[in-house]
Amino acid sequence: MSRWKFVGRTAELDRLQAAVTGAEGRRGIFFAGSPGIGKSRLLREGVDALPSEEYAVWWIAASATTQAVPFGGLVQVLPVEQPQGLSPAGILRWAVDVLQQQAAGRRIVLAVDDAHLLDPPSAALVHLVARSENAFVVGTLRDGEQIPLPIRALWTDGLVAHAEVSPLPPAETARLLREILGCQVDHASSERLGRLSSGNPLLLRELVHAATNSGESSKTYGVWTWTGRLELAPNLTELIDIRINQLTPGVRTVVELVAFGEPLGLRLLYRAAEQADVETAEERGLITVAPSDRRVDVRLAHPLYGEVVRRQCPVSRTRRLQAHLAELLEGAGKRRREDLLRVAVWRLDSGTAQDPAMLVDAAGQAFARYDVPLATRLARAALDAGGGFDAAELLATILMFADRPAEALGVLDAVATDTGDEERLSRWLTVRGMVSYWGLSQHSTVEEIAKRGGDLKDHAAQARVRAFESIMRLHRLDAPTALRLAQHVLDRPAASIAARELARCAIAHLQAVQGQLCRSATAVELVQAKVASWRADMPYLQLAVELARGTRLALSGDLAGIDALVADEFADLADAGDFRLGSGYLSILRAYAARLRGRSDAALQAALGACAVLATSRVYAGLAQAERAQAAALRGDARQAAEAMAEADRIHAPSMAVLYPWLEQARAATLAAGGDVAGAAAHLHGLVDRLRVDGFAGHETLVLHDLVRLGEATAPTGPTCSDGSRRTVAQRLAELSEQVDGNLPPLLARHARAAAESSPEQLLTAADGFLDLGLALPAAEAAAEAVHLLRQRRSPQLASAGERLAVMLGCCDMVHTPALRAATPTLSDREWQVARLAALGETSRAIAEQLFLSARTVENHLQRIYTKLGVTGRAELRAALRAIPGHDGTATA
User: An example of a Gene Ontology BP annotation on this entry (predicted)?
Assistant: First the structure.
C-alpha cells in the first residue's frame, strides 16, 4: 500500500502559510492533537510548500532518545563542533547566529515535530529563534503531554498561534479512503471505517491494512467493500494498548462493561462497578459520560477501544459480564423500547437466552431498525429455541431481504402445516409470495396468491393478501387490476394498518408514473404519518414507500427532494444495517440527481456503488446497471455504457417490469453514446408509443424531452389524427404539460417549442429555467443549442450567449451528450492549438514559433476558426471557446 495522499486540512494549511509570512502578526504556529490525527503530515505538507529561495527551513524531529541530550533535538541543524568556554546563554546566541548565517538573508523557519519531546536547551533555542527578526517557528504537540516551559510560553505570551487539529470530517475521511485504495469505496464501508477511526488518519490506515490483509474486503464493479469483520493487526492493537493497558482491575471492569454494553446508563454502571473506578476511567479519557433524554449514558471514548477490549476478554468472563448486564437491565425494568433488544442480545451472546418470545420480539425490533445481520441472528435463535411459526415467518422475511430467498423458502415450507387459522395463513401466503415472486422471480406467484387469497373468509386476512397482490400486479404492469385491488383494501374497515398502507403505496406509485404527482405526494405523506403503526408489523413496507416517493421525485426533477430522501433516517439505518435493497435504491437516486446536475463523476460513482450493493439482488440490480449506463453515456464512455446495458438486460427481473421506462431510456442513451443517434431516436419513439398505451404520462414527458435533446422536436409522434396528420414531439409535450403535475413539464414543453421554432431567445429562457431548478445538464444543452443558432446567424448576441453557456457548463464536469456535440463546432487538433494560444493573447508570430508553422499558415488557421465559430476577431474568440463543452479549461487557462 503506497504512501497516503494528503487530503483536506485547507484551513490549517492556510493558517500555517499566514503564520510564516507574518500576516497574523505572529512568529509561527503550533498544532496540537491526539496521536495519529495527522499533525506531522500537516506540518510537512505546509513547510514543503514554502519556496526555498525565500525560506531557509530546518527540520527538528524531537524524540525520547534526543530528549536526554543537550541540543539533541537540533543535532541535524547545528554544526557538530560547538565553541568552547561559552556560557549557556552564549551558546544560545551562537546557535542563533549560525542559523542566520546559513539562511543567507532568507526567512528562517524552524519546523519542530513533537516539540513536547525537546530537551531544555533545544526548547530554549526554539523560543529565542521565535523572538529573532526574520525567523518563525512551526511545530506539533501531542495532547496530554508535558510541554517544556519555553515552548508553552510561545503562545501564552502571544508570540505564536496555537491550534487544535481536529479529526477528519466524514467527507474527507471518505476522500482519503478513495485516494489510498485507488478506487471508489462502498458508502456503508466508508461510514463504518470513518466511525471506527473517529477521523484519525493513522487508525484509518491500520484499519484498511487489517481489512485488506485479512481478506475481509472485495471489489465489485470497481467498488471496494468491507465485510465489517475486523481482524486486528498487531500494529493496531499496540496503538490502542497504549491507552487501555496497565489498568487496575476495577477500572478494567468498568471499561469491559461499557465495551459490551454501550451505551450504558450511568446509574446501571454504578450498580455493576465502583463509582470511584468509573470516575477514574472518565478522568483517563477511556469513557465519556453524556446526557441522553432522561438518562445519562456512558460510552467508550473511542470505538476501537471496544474492539480491543472485547477481543482480549476471555470467553468465560465475556459471557459472565453479558449475563450480568442482562440481569441488571431486567431488574431495572427495561423502561426504554430498545432495552428489550439489548437484553436479548446479551442473553444470546452469554448463552442464557431461553425465552423464544423475547427473541422473536427482539428480532422484530432489529428488523424494524433495518439491522439485517442482527435480526437474522435473533430470529434464527428464536426458531432454534422453539419459537415456532412466528419465528419461522420472521426469519424467512429477513432472509428474503438478505438476498437468501432459497433458504427463506425452506424455512417457510417447514412450517406450512402450522397455519391453523386464516390470520396466520395470510401471513404465510404473503411472505411466501414475496420470496417466490421477488426473490426467485416466479411469475406464476401472482395467480397462486390471488387464488388462495380469494378462498379466505376473514376480511382482515384477505385484505393483507390483496395488498400484496396489488403491489405484485403493479410491478408486472397489470395496473388496472393493481388499482382495483388496492382500492378494495382501503375500502375494507377490517384491513390492518400495514395492509392499508401497503395498498396506498401501490396507488402512490401508480399515480406517480401516470403524472398525478400531487396525489402521489399526498398518498406517501399519509403512509409516512402512520409509520409508527406499521413498521413493527411490516418494516419492509418502507421500500414500497421509497420506490413511490423516489419515482415521483425523479419524474418531477425535484433534486432537493431527492437530496432530502437520501439523507434521512432510513438511509442511515439501511447503510448501517446492511439493508441492501434500501441503500442500493437510494444510491440509484443519488446517481440520477447527480446526472441531472451534470456531475457525471458523482453519478458514475453512485451508480457503481448501487451495482456493487445490489450485485446479488433480483429487484433493483437491473435498474442500477441502467443508471450506470446513463452515467457512462453522459461521460461519452460508450464501451462502459454498452457493458452496463448488457448486464442490465441479463439481470433485470421480470417481476420488476414496472421499471421498464428507466431501462429503455438508458438503452437509448447507450445507442446515442455509441454514435447511433438515429437508432436512439427510433427507440425513443417506440418507447413513447408504449408509454402512451400504458398511460404512464409522467414517464412520457421525460422520454419526449429526450427526443427534443436529440433534435427531434418537430418529429411526428403518436397516432394519426382524423385529418391524417400527427402531432409533433413539441405539440405532445405541450399537451402533457397541462396534464402532468409540477413545474418541470411546462419547462420541458417550453424547451421543445423553442427548439421547434429555432428561437435562440426562448432556448436561453428555457436554459435559465432549468438552471433555476438545479438541472444544469438540460440547461447547458438548451443554451448550447441557442449558441449554435446564433453562431449560424452571426448574431451580435453570440458573445453574451456564450458567456451564459460557459456558466452552465461550469456547473458540470465531464459531459458529452449528442445535444452538446451537435450544437458545437468541430475544430481540428491544429486549429485547437492555434485557437487556444490566440485566446491567451499570443501574437501570430509567437503562435507560429511555438507550433513550428509559418505566420501565413497561422493567419489562415485563424480565419477558418473565425468562420467556424462565427466570430470576427480575437476579441470574441475567448468567449466563443469558453462556450464549447470540454474545451473551456484548456482554451482559457
Answer: regulation of DNA-templated transcription
Interatomic CA distance for residues 9 and 38, integer angstroms: 9
What is residue 886's three-state secondary structure?
A: coil
pLDDT tens for residues 234-288? Answer: 666 665 666 666 778 898 899 999 989 888 888 889 988 999 999 998 888 888 8
Give the model's pLDDT for residue 76: 65
Tell me, yes or no, whether 623 and 590 share the same domain: yes
Query: Is there a single domain that holds both residue 153 and residue 206?
Result: no
Q: Which strand ranges, in their side-by-side order, compose the sheet holding 135-142? A: 55-61, 107-113, 135-142, 28-33, 161-164
Residues 140 and 213 in one domain: no
| 288 vs 430: CA distance, rounded Å | 46
Residues 639 and 597 in one domain: yes
- Distinct helix (H) and strand (E) counts, the chain: 47, 13
- Please give the biggest Cα pair distance in the chain: 114
Contact 662, 512 (CB under 8 A): no
**Do residue 515 and residue 606 come from a single domain?**
no
- Asked if omega into 885 is within 30° of 0 (cis), the reply is no
Query: Looking at the structure, do residues 617 and 640 belong to the same domain, yes or no?
Result: yes
Residue 724 lies in a domain: no
- In three-state form (DSSP H/G/I as H, E/B as E, the rest C), the secondary structure along 800-837 is HHHHHHHHHHHCCCCCCCHHHHHCCCCCCHHHHHHHHH
What is the model's pLDDT at position 85? Answer: 63
For residue 62, being part of any structural domain is answered with: yes
Q: What residues contact residue 757 under an 8 Å CB cut-off, 6+ apart?
A: none
Instruction: Give the per-residue pLDDT at 11.
Output: 85
Would you say 95 and 73 are in contact if contact means Cβ atoms under 8 Å apart?
Answer: no
Nearest to 385 by CA among 412, 414, 418, 359: 359
Closest CA to 702 of 755, 751, 660, 745: 745
Report d(CA 669, CA 674) in Å as an integer.
9
Cell of 849: 514559433
For strand 217-220 and strand 223-226, is the pairing parallel, antiparallel, or unpaired? antiparallel
Distances (CA, A) of 685 to 664, 700, 705, 740: 11, 10, 11, 19
Burial of 355: CB neighbours in 10 Å, binned 0-12, 13-18, 19+: middle
- Computed over every residue of the chain, the mean pLDDT equals 87
Question: Within this chain, do residues 445 and 580 fall inside the same structural domain, yes or no?
Answer: no
Q: Find how far residue 83's CA is from the centre of its chain.
A: 62
Enclosing domain of residue 846: 825-893
Q: Nearest-CA neighbor of 806 among 833, 826, 824, 783?
A: 783
pTM of the model: 0.81
Q: What is the three-class DSSP state of 388? A: helix
- DSSP at 146: P
- Sheet strand arrangement including 184-185: 184-185, 223-226, 217-220
Instruction: Look at 16 and 825; give whichever has higher pLDDT.
Output: 16
